[in-house]
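Hey, resending since the last one bounced:
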Amino acid sequence: MDWKELLGFIGGALTTMGFVPQVWRLFRLRSAHEISLPFTIFFLVGIAFWLSYGISLGLLSVIIWNAITFGLGFAMLYAKLRYGK
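The structure tokens again:
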């Protein structure tokens, strides 16, 4: 693995793990009033594009971390729809 790919793995890990506490908090408190629905939708669509980009170029770090982030974003959307009222 070259240093550029290592940078991608480290950067992806740090930014993806930044969402874990937020998603954990949404489910723990069962409250998503503070999360914007448009943000969550735009976020998910953007991540889907990044994932598609990574797949099209075969960039493993982009594929892995965006797939995980997409799952976290989907959990955030679920929490917003369930607890955001």
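The chain has a mean pLDDT of 94.

Sorry for the duplicate.
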